[in-house]
Amino acid sequence: MKTKKIFGLIAILALLAGPFLGWDREARAAALTGGSLSLSDSRPSQTGVSYTFTWTGVTSATIKCIQAEFATTAAGGTAPEGMVTSGVQNGGGTYVTGLSGWTAAQVSTGKVKLSNATGGTGQNGTVIFNGIQNGSTADTAYYAIFKTFAAQDCTGDPVDSGTVMFIYTAGQ
Q: Residue 106, class by beta-carbon neighbours within 10 Å (0-12 exposed, 13-18 middle, 19+ buried)?
């Protein structure tokens, strides 16, 4: 009986002391600030739309992959109904030097990326994804989850991340 109490007490102390000893460490991306997303045409189902992200608070580190996920929740997952990202193109920007030379690709429906083997240094600025078809539902909140990576294939821990909310509006 005493042994169970002692082990229980040790377990509680370990849980409480863990954060101070670094046992709870997990990789965290730096949170981007001052973020916004603008669409060249916010009407539902429009094709060839440009999605322009603008960020401040960017980490000055080498970036080789920039990923954007468009989803129905801020945690990601399901893309807006009717959204088509298979025709994504690089629209350039100033987020890293030489961004216009990066390769655009669809990762999955609603998730796109720009990548480059050499990469560039992150700086406050814009990233533009062209050639996207908007989702088909107006006046519904959607989320764009933006992440940058040091690896060209967008793997590993993100360097920076930020999430913005957007809607499609008929007649705008």
A: middle
CA–CA separation, 167 and 44 (whole Å): 9
Cα 144–chain centre separation: 7
| Interval 22-73: pLDDT, tens | 433 334 578 898 899 999 999 999 999 999 999 999 999 999 999 999 999 9
pLDDT value of residue 19 = 43
End-to-end CA gap in the chain: 71
In this predicted model, what pLDDT tens digit does every residue of 98-143 receive, in sequence order? Answer: 898 999 999 999 999 999 999 999 999 999 999 999 999 999 999 9
> Which spans in the chain are helix H?
2-21
Residue 62 neighbours by CB distance under 10 Å = 15
| Integer Cα distance of 115 and 154 in angstroms | 8
Instruction: Return the amino acid letter for 14.
Output: A
Cα–Cα distance, 110 to 119 (Å, whole number): 23
Neighbours of 23 (CB within 10 A): 10
Give the residue carrying structure tokens 């409480």. Answer: 16
104-107 long-range contacts, CB within 8 A, separation 24+: 104/129, 104/130, 104/131, 107/67, 107/154
